[in-house]
Amino acid sequence: MCGVFGIWGHPEAANIAYLGLHALQHRGQESAGIASTDGERLFAHRAMGLVQASFSERELGELKGLGAIGHVRYSTAGSSHVKNAQPLAVDYAHGSIALAHNGNLTNHESLRAELEAKGSIFQSGTDTETIVHLFARSAESTVEDRLIDALRKVEGAYSLVLLADKKLVAVRDPMGIRPLCLGKLARGDREIAVIASEPTSFDLIGADLVRDVAPGEVLVIDDSGARSLFPWEEKPRASCLFEHVYFARPDAVIDGVSIYEVRKELGRRLAAEHPLPEGDSPAVVVPVPDSGVAAAIGYSEASGHSFQMGLIRSHYIGRTFIEPQDTIRHFGVRLKLHPNRAVLRGRRVIVVDDSIVRGTTSRKIVKMVRDAGAAEVHVRVSSPPTRWPCFYGIATPTRQELIASTQAEDAIKTYLDADSVGYLSLGALAASVRTAGKASGARDSAPESGSLRGFCHACWSGEYPVPIPRTVLHRLRLIHG
Ligand code: AMP
In CA terms, which of 110, 254, 268, 308 is 20 to 30 Å from 226? Predict the structure, then answer.
């Protein structure tokens, strides 16, 4: 997953982008980068690591100009290496551009093979570079038309920002799979346009959220203002539900819906679908921090069992799952979470987390909670069993590694060594987003409460809104024959 940021028309564009990226850090911790333009030249700096560690004062100072874009990354296509860090910055026949992309293209392998056959030389392993080559080869004349031309050939998920010497272009794919928002930053009597994956960036820089970039919208921002193009045929919307469950920051509002309210509602519905079995000792609801906190509040509210911080999180460790190396990730759970014995000892503990992927984290947490003296450990998950890999920009392991794709719930309970396990149903998940949407007054929160229409839920259902090429499905052993 990644985060993107863009700004046009500010004398400290790169500094603002740097701040904006800080507020998107949860979307990617492997690398960070900013590209800027002074209207003639393009400047770029990319490095491995967190935003804070990636830029010295001098490096930021060299990113001159009134326009900037930024990117934080954790790898979903291409390895964890600085050559794959973004923004990609290139010179082509008519100038220079930089591109930062969130999402994954489903047909990039065949496009890359075609482009290479025609002589394109790729510098990175990312799918994003395909867009750059298509852009460079386009016969259109304006930057936005070249980009639109390039994007006509790609399929999959893309929320992206492109920086050229005289403009910034922001695009959200026609299905709106990944989020993208438009904000405005007041500067004297002017309003400066800012773009970000989540409005969390806007709060930090003092900007206001204007609206979400619409699915299929191309926003062209330059010195004369912003204008919208809708060059593609309308497609059924497929916003990623996992953004609501886990990925976005809880204080974000995406497509008009408060992520925090969604997650509390997930917890309430989880309590209704999977209450704690009868028992004698007192029960506590314990979130896996931070990802399970809001859902645990909802579970506690609905069940009446008290919410307690039975696991304490170290603030000096990032999102462990994001670590690409297995050894680091496995060790990470103990580094990140510590049992609070005062809460856990002798209690029936309801552990609430957002998802079980491989099951390794939950297994360690159950053991940790038992070792701390819990009488019983009940695992509650605020999403359905994750059974299918994501091809649209969320890093998921192979299907074989997803515990729920090979194991029934009973076997998962045994593997986790839990007294019970309960997953939220997909219907309740979609209904939670709609309920929270209605509460926040979102325009398109349809009344049909359990309907999955408008959402991508492929990781749970295996129903992929953008078809996955057969060659890829074969290679991943998702189809046979
Ligand atoms: P696992 O040990 O593989 O079951 O990891 C599950 C944990 O990873 C949960 O606590 C989630 O909060 C977190 N998680 C789930 N999916 C992702 C993802 N795609 N990227 C980062 N973290 C994730």
Answer: 254
